[in-house]
Fold:
Amino acid sequence: MARTKNEQIKNETVVIEQDTKETTEKQETQNTQKSEVENNESDQTTDNPKKRVYAADDMIPCKSVTAGELLYSAKKSGIFYRWADYGSVEDVRYEDLVYLRDSKSMYLYSPLFIIEDDELVNDKKWARVKEVYNSLMESVDIDEILSLPINDFKAVLKQMPKNIQNTIKIVITEKLENGTFDSIKKVKAVDEILNSDLLCLIK
Structure:
């Protein structure tokens, strides 16, 4: 009987040790899972700040970089947009901008106008558009370009997209016609680079 009682005590001890081990392992698993959740929440807060979610009908300010009147009839929304002149700002629906982006339209990639929403342009989905804007030296200021020294003027003019080159040519043409531009060297540079004949406008 003594042997049986000892065996019983031994078995109970084993059961207690197993229960203790299982409880410890369970607590460790729960702690690990809790730690992973906390780390994920921390990563979401640090690495993924809340971004604006654009709706199709959100209006985005866009500035014309085209000399004279600029018109666009949107195929997506059916809205007819009009910019009065270079530098004019009009709001364009987000869905129309997405359509222009995905169809690789010259309105965005030449560009004919520039999106003036930094959060939108900095989104990775708009990376190609941002590259175009970077090539325009972040912003296009025709008067500033026209005021550059002749060598800098030539260098900048050669790097500009065709639409901006054409805008510069139109602006110079208008200034020559009203007598407010007198740099013959820059007129010759435009004629040489853009294969134009503005020199004939000088009286």
The radius of gyration is 34 Å.
